[in-house]
Amino acid sequence: MKPIIIQTTFKNEEEAKKLSNILIVEKLAACVQLKEIKSIYSWKNKICCDNETLVNIKTKKKLFAKVKSRILELHSYDVPEIIAIDISNISKDYLKFIKENTI
């Protein structure tokens, strides 16, 4: 089993919590972390600076497509960030936690 972190952002905590709860209930994620951040980016030839909620989703690599599909289904952005980060070092206990709490 290959563990990954899928990273995305939402415009507010309410949207982020909605996705997080669905992923946990459907066992597509073992853990989801939310953090308030400020993002600076270029959109339609304009520099933007917005408050967002960063979401880190701990899951299995084989579940990436399903998680991505749920993000796209529930997201309000035209182009949501969906990035998978391979976990190269992980404790045996945390790896077991991910295995036991995902499908």
Automatic annotation (TrEMBL):
It holds the Pfam family CutA1. SUPFAM superfamilies: GlnB-like (SSF54913). GO terms for biological process: response to metal ion. InterPro entries: Ion_tolerance_CutA (IPR004323), N-reg_PII-like_a/b (IPR011322), N-reg_PII/ATP_PRibTrfase_C (IPR015867). It comes from the Bacteria. One of its GO terms (molecular function) is copper ion binding. Belongs to the CutA family. This is CutA divalent ion tolerance protein. It comes from Aliarcobacter trophiarum LMG 25534.
